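Example 3.2
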Amino acid sequence: MPMSLSFAIATEADAGAIAAMRNAAAEQLARKYGPGNWASLATERSVLLHNFMRPKFQRTLIAHDGPNLVATLCLQTKKPWAIDTKYFTSVSKALYLISMAVHPDWQGKGVGRLILKEAENIARNWPSNAIRLDAWDADAGAGPFYAKCGFRVVGHVIYRTAPIVYYEMVL
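Structure, written as C-alpha cells:
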C-alpha cells in the first residue's frame, strides 16, 4: 500500500490523537521488551503540558498518511533534565528532540526516517546548529535507528538508574 506522508506542526487540537499514537507505540514496546521507561503512557493533558506549554520554544511535528496520524516528535530549545551538555559539540543554538514515536502499523516503512528529515529541515530554519537527544541504552531503545539516520553517539550515562545514550546531529 503506497504511503503519502504529509507533515505539519501540531496544534492543541491534535493532543488527543498524539497521546493515542504514543500509547500504541509504548504498548507495543512493552509487549516486545517488557515493562520499562519506554512503556510510559501519555494522556491528552500530558501532551498539552509537555508539547504546547511554550510554543515560542518548541514545535511538535506530526506526520499523516491520509487521515491517519502515523508519527510525531517534538523539537524544543529547552534542555531536558536527562541531558548533560558537556558530552555534546559546542554550538551556539541546539534543539532537543523529545517524544518521538511512530505508530506500530507504520514502523519499519521509512516513516521515522522521513519525519526526522523533516525535523532536520525545521531545525535548519529555526535556526539551529544541532539536534540533540537521548535514547534508552536497552534493547527497547531507538539508538541504532538514530545512528542509521545520521546521528552520532556522544556519550553513555546513567540517569536516575536508567542507562541512556546521547546522540547529536550537527547541522
